Amino acid sequence: MVEFLTTMRYIEQYLKPGDRVIEIGAGTGRYAHALAQAGYHVDAVELLRHNIEVFRHNTLPSEPVTVRQGNALDLSEFSDGVYDITLLLGPMYHLYTVEEQKKALTEALRVTKPGGVVFAAYCGNDATVLQCCFGREFLKDPRYLSLTDLDTFKLSSTPEEIFALHRREDIDALMNGLPVQRLHFVGTDMATGYLRDTVDQMDDKMYKLYLQYHFAICERPDLVGASNHFLDVFRKL
Q1: Percent of the chain predicted with pLDDT > 70
Q2: DSSP codes of every residue in 153-195
């Protein structure tokens, strides 16, 4: 919930009445449905048929939302410069080469209007090092050890590991040369991944205070690298 609430908080900062939204890699539609229920026209693209079936099952008759099967690397069914808000909240988790990652970003930018805002989510490298490599002792497994640079502790991934992992400098390199202005770089869960049980047990008053703290620190450069998930928010020039 902390990740969802944080992401929605930033999306809502840039939404304007009448905006058109595209969600690329929409999954089962958590964000698309929330925005459609708020009255925004949302076009969703999802790769997996099962997710599309769940998405359609959960769609209310009143929602101005569409969903079709598609791939973040090829949005050729969509015209240039159509959308005010573009959500790329899942694909960067599952693209394992720089070439694919750049393609997904350029396609997201292509369908976005000049002046429109793109939200791209990533999985964090160092939270995985702390929680999995050491917390769950994955480094005892020769396979995971072979995917770890023991000088920098930068982790490599393949489709077998499911998630591609990034540091801020990796994302900066991907964005280099693209016609964008970065607006925010956010840790969307920050300490929550380390305090999961504690956060789950908080009463409403303490949880509200925790969220207040989280929102106060989620862009701090000295802390954001430890987040499990990042949100890069940028405007198309």
Answers
A1: 100
A2: -PBP--GGG---EE-HHHHHHHHTTSSEEEEEEEESSGGGGTS
Distance CA 23, CA 11 (A): 12
pLDDT value of residue 147: 95
Nearest to 90 by CA among 72, 110, 68: 72
Report residue 97 CA to chain centroid gap: 17
153-192 in b/e burial notation, b at 16+ Cβ within 10 A?
bbbebeeeeebbbbbbebbeebeeeeebeebebbbbbbbb
Q: In the predicted model, what is the mean pLDDT of residues 146-168?
A: 94
Q: How many Cα atoms within 13 Å fall on the side-chain side of residue 67? A: 26
Instruction: Indicate the pLDDT class of residue 214, thresholds 50, 70 and 90.
Output: very high
pLDDT at 161 over 90: no
Stated length of the chain: 237
Band (pLDDT 50/70/90 cuts) for residue 162 is confident
C-beta neighbour count of 85 within 10 angstroms? 22
Q: Which of 151, 105, 144 is nearest to 128 (CA)?
A: 144
What are the C-alpha distances in Å from 52 to residues 25, 45, 57? Answer: 10, 9, 8
